[in-house]
Amino acid sequence: MFTQDFSAVGGSLGWSALIAVIPILYFIWALMFKKMKGYIAGITTLLVALVLAVVAFKMPVGTAVMAASQGAMYGIIPIGWIIVTSVFLYNVTVRTGQFDIIRYSVLSITADRRVQALLVAFSFGAFLEGAAGFGAPVAISAALLVGLGFNPLYAAGLCMIANTAPVAFGAIGIPITAMEGPTGIPALEISKMVGRQLPFLSVCIPFLLVWIMVGWKKTIEVLPAILVSGITFAVTQYLSSNFLGPELPDVLSALVSLLALAIFMKFWTPKEIYRFADEKLNVEDQVNQYYSGGQIFKAWSPFIILTAFISLWGIPTIKSALIGHYEGTNVVLSWINQLGSWLTFTPAVPFVNNQIIDGMTNAPIAAVYKIEILGAAGTAIFLAAIVTKFIFNVSWKNWWSILGQTANEIKFPLLTICAVVAYAYVVNAAGMTTTLGLILAKTGVLFPFFSPVLGWIGVFITGSDTSANVLFAKLQQVTATSVGMDPVLALAANSSGGVTGKMISPQSIAVAAAAVGLMGREAELLRFTIKYSIILLLAICILTFLQSNVLSFMIP
Fold first, then answer.
1. Residue (of 66, 79, 67, 68) closest to 372 by Cα position
2. Contacts of 547 (CB under 8 A, 6+ apart)
C-alpha cells in the first residue's frame, strides 16, 4: 500500500511543491530551449517524473511503473486511436482527389484566408469539440486548414488557440457534469457560472486568431466578420449554458456562428481578399461553379458522416450501450450493449488498483485499464472511414494501404502521446499534482485570483479539462468555502482556467503535430501558443477575482 503524502519532501508542503513542479519545467525546457523532438521530450519527462515519484514522494517502484502503463494505455485508446482515424479519414479524401472539391466549396463562401480560419478553426472546430472532444477537433480542423493551403504550424497553432472557447463544454458537457459527483453541486449551477465567464473569452478569440495571422491593420479589414463570428458564438454560449445546461453550448454556439458567418459573407466581402505571401489568386480558385451541389456534398460526406457518428457516440444512452452498461429494454440498444460488453475491457492495474490511498480522503483509489474499443470516439471515426470507402469507391487494397501509411506517418507522435499521458498518470498517482494544488490553496484572500491557475495546471498535466475538474473540484470547493469565496465560482474558475492550458498541454501539442505532419517540431508549436495561454489565463484570473469581490451579482 502507498499513501499519498503531500509533504513528503522534508515534511514541508512548500519543498514538496517545488519538487513536484520540476517535470513541468523540464518539459518546457526540453521543448522550448533544448528543442528536443516531442517523443524524446515526452519520454525523458516521464523518466524524470518516475524518479521523483519514487525518490522524493516515496512511491514504490512497481506502483509508479504500472501507473505509467495505465497512462500509456489511455494514450493508445482513446487518444491515439482518435488521431490515427482522424488523419486517416482526411488522407482518404486527399488521396481520392475529393479534398480539392472541399477546398473549392470553402472558397465559394470566401477566398479570404482570415475568414476561412474563423469558419474552420473556430466554428467547425468548436462543433467537433462539442460532439467528440479528446483531440478530434484540433486534429480534423487543422488537417482541413492544411489542405486549404495554410502553413502547418499556423494551422495547428490557430486550431489549438481556437479550441479555447469550447473546451469547457466539450464532449456533450462532460467536463462540467464530472464535477457534480465529487462536490454535490448541481451541474446546471456550474454551467451557469462557466457561461458567465467563457463568453468574454469566446467573443475575443476570433479577433485573436486573425490578429495572430495578419496583424492589426489587416484584422480591422475583416472586423465585421470577426464580430459576427464571435458575438453569435458568445451569446449562444451564454444562453444555452444558463438555460439549457452543459450538454449543448458547444454544438449550438458552433452551428449558430458557422451559419451566421456563412450567410453574412453572402452579403459582405472585405475590400481586399487576403492571401498568404507565397500564393497567388489563381484563376482555378474561382472555378467552384464546375462542381455541382451533388459533387460538393459527396466530397464533404466523410465529415458529415463523421459528425453524425461522433454525435451518436456522445448521446449518453447510446454511449452506455457502446460500453456494455445499457440497462433498458430497447432491442437495438440491447444488441449494441451485448457487442459493447464483448469489446470493453477493464482489467485492474497491478500494484495500483486500490493500492494507493488518497491523501485527501484516506480512501483507496481504483485503477483499471479502460479499453473501450466500440465506445471510443476513434471507432466512430473509423466507421465513418469505412462508409467513405464505399462512397468514394476506394478498393480495399488502397484503403488498407492508406491506413498503413497513416499509422507509419504518426508513429512518433503516438509515442509522444503515450509518454506524456503516462507522465500525467504517474504524477497524479504520486500526489504531485495535488501538492501543487494545495500550495496554491494557501494563497488565502488571493485565492479567487489563483483559483483558475489550478485548472490551468491540471489541464497542462492531464491534457483534459474533465480530468483537471475531477482532480481539483473538491479542493476548489473546500478552499473556496474556507476563504469566503463562492464554491460555484471556484469550480467554474477551475474549468475556465483549464481551457487556457489546453493549448500548451504536451498531449494537445502531440495531437496537433501529428495531424499536420509537424513530427519533431513540437517545440515550435509550444512557442507559438504559450504566450497566448498565459495572457488568456491572466484574463480569467482577473475576471474571477472581480466576480468574487466586485461583480458578485454575476454569480448564480
1. 79
2. 196, 197, 448, 489, 554, 555
Instruction: Inform me whether the pLDDT recorded for 283 exceeds 70.
Output: no
Report the Cα–Cα distance between both ends of the chain, in Å, rounded.
43
Q: Output the pLDDT for position 135.
A: 66
Mean pLDDT of the chain: 86
Q: Where do runs of H (alpha helix) occur along 75-177?
A: 81-95, 98-109, 113-117, 125-131, 136-148, 152-162, 170-177
**Band of the pLDDT at 131, cuts 50, 70, 90?**
low
In this prediction, residue 288 carries a pLDDT of: 43
**Whether 167 contacts 502, CB under 8 Å:** yes
C-beta of residue 165 within 8 angstroms of C-beta of residue 536: no
pLDDT at 284: 46
Contact between 75 and 81 under an 8 Å Cβ cutoff? The reply is no
Q: Model's pTM, two decimal places? A: 0.77
Distance CA 408, CA 403 (A): 9
Cell, residue 524: 515550435
Residue 365 three-state SS: coil
Do residues 27 and 38 make contact, with C-beta atoms less than 8 angstroms apart?
A: no
Torsion angles phi and psi, residue 280, rounded to 5: -115, 160
Instruction: Retrieve residue 358's grid coordinates.
Output: 488518497
- Segment 249-277 mean pLDDT: 88
